[in-house]
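Posting here for the record, re: adenosine-5'-triphosphate.
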Amino acid sequence: MTHAIESEGLAKRFGETVALAGVDLHVPTGSVLGLLGPNGAGKTTAVRIFATLLLPDAGRAQVGGFDVVADAHRVRSIIGLTGQYASVDEKLTGWENLVLLGRLLDLPRAEARCRARDLLAQFQLEEASGRAVATYSGGMRRRLDLAASLVGRPPILFLDEPTTGLDPRGRLELWALIRQLVSEGTTVLLTTQYLDEADQLADSIAVIDEGRLIARGSPEELKARLGAQSLLVRPARSEDIGATLSILKEVTGAEPQAEDSTVTAAVSDPGLLTAAVCRLEEAGITIAELELRRPTLDEVFLALTSRVPERTPGDHEEEGCP
Ligand SMILES: Nc1ncnc2c1ncn2[C@@H]1O[C@H](COP(=O)(O)OP(=O)(O)OP(=O)(O)O)[C@@H](O)[C@H]1O
Ligand SMILES: [Mg+2]
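Prediction output follows.
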């Protein structure tokens, strides 16, 4: 079997709302697919169908070669799911949660305890293992949630926005854990609104918007699709931003944007960099920072959907929209 997860024409409505309008996805075994999209794009709906928590209206979906409707029971035996909202029991301790899950998965008592101990160690939760989850920080909860989805050693993992609400360090820690799982052969479907997260973790990315697939490819392919590079100029004096905007507009023919005292313009020809520098120098503008770079996924998203992805409250500054 080459695809651990696949769907064809997957569709789902909730009353008048079309959550999925015929989505085809293919995730090769042992790889990571980043399913990217703004709020309400249909990411969680797709994950819930793959995880047999929701029936599709049309289309088909297979996980590990099993149909999610006809063979739901077998699908459940080979997947782990970390939901968008923590699924562990707050009143129980971390240890109790994991042992309980092991018992629910029919592990013998000794094995359930052994598995819980191993996972708590792997996720650096040993010290907190005896405390009620209600006392855990957001990052600890997320780690426990991921650990909980791994109790049954699933070869296929669905992670629905696993790092939402985490601080940068918490995200890095969780990324490392996910990478480790992938290096051990786990297939992962990861949903995220963080474009840099998909860039960091995914072998391929599918972008959905309003229930439709609008782009698919490797992070590099998606960036290349814009066919342009971005030229960034930060003038040393903030009063030069207006003049920098006009010069970059004139040189690139694009509509430059100013943000955080930096002016950014899409350029189709890298040779325009020299022209821009000459014109800025002629105008007496001192350049504090200059960069020609490939577009970020944020910019790709903007180009694909003509809008900036919505952000959930609590997002961090460095994930700001273009
Ligand atoms: N149980 C439900 N009943 C009614 N509408 C729903 C239900 N679940 C999802 N929807 C709607 O379906 C659409 C897709 O929702 P979904 O949760 O799949 O989006 P999402 O991409 O996961 O968004 P987010 O980034 O906010 O988590 C939204 O318009 C949502 O309001
Ligand atoms: Mg969601």
